[in-house]
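Justification of computing resources. Each target in the renewal requires a structure prediction run like the one illustrated here; the chain below, 124 residues long, is used simply to show the kind of job we budget for.
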Amino acid sequence: QVQLVESGGGLVQAGGSLRLSCAASGRTFSNSIMGWFRQAPGKEREFLAAISRSGGNKYYADSVKGRFTISRDNAKNTVFLQMNSLKPEDTAVYYCAAKQTTVIFTNQDLYDYWGQGTQVTVSS
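Resulting structure tokens:
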């Protein structure tokens, strides 16, 4: 079992930055790929970024490539999402997810564990 708790969301002006954290409990964090997703009001949840178990491989959605950076600290069982140059359309609930595998997935249906989400609001 893996329990995930996101933090770091909040209200920020357009052009600003936020750093989201996702703390994982359990002994399987280092054996899990981690992903970040978001869901805006009235829209489906979308993939943002994923990172391999070692942190050596990362994959990003085109919508956030160059603005968002995913990273992880296996010693602290934490994955991060650094978000820069935020836009009003980035407003959403942001979720982290985990799957015990070696392959990076972008499909949310393949992830086994999810956090409760953290709200990010970007004002114009």
